[in-house]
Write a structure and sequence with these properties.
The protein is an all-alpha fold. It has 5 helices and no strands. It has a domain of 83 residues. Helix content is 82%, strand content 0%. It is globular and about 45 Å long.
Length: 130
């Protein structure tokens, strides 16, 4: 039970910092030059989050699994990066499928997530408009 509490606190603490970091980047970057509505801040967040998560998981895979490394991984990967961007996990998992030579599954996941995500947003907008 102690480990579960520590792990939950690690995820929550990392998530708190990740959410504030996402907000901070969006404030610093904004939406780009006046009149341009391209979401540059979100693009930067997604790319930096993906890069960081790839580095972090690779770095941590070389460390032994201890209570400390498990809590640290949960705090950073699940909490911080998860709150900073979930796109990074999507890209990491897609890359893992490609690396495992599961190309059909990787492409299905990649494009299926895009299509179903857009359908989900459209459905949510439709339901919210009722």
């Amino acid at each position: 039970m102690r480990n579960v509490i520590i792990n939950c606190l690690a995820v929550g603490g990392g998530g708190f910092v990740g959410a504030l970091s996402r907000y901070g980047v969006s404030l610093l970057v904004g939406r780009g030059p006046a009149g341009i509505s391209f979401p540059i801040a979100t693009l930067i967040i997604n790319v930096t989050g993906s890069t960081f998560l790839g580095w972090f998981y690779t770095f941590m895979s070389k460390r032994p699994n201890t209570e400390y490394t498990i809590a640290l991984t949960l705090a950073i990967a699940t909490g911080f990066v998860g709150a900073y961007t979930t796109f990074s996990t999507y890209m990491f998992e897609t890359n893992a499928l490609f690396s495992a030579r599961a190309n059909v599954q990787a492409l299905t996941y990649l494009f299926g997530s895009l299509a179903l995500g857009l359908v989900g947003v459209k459905l949510g907008v439709m339901l919210g408009s009722l």
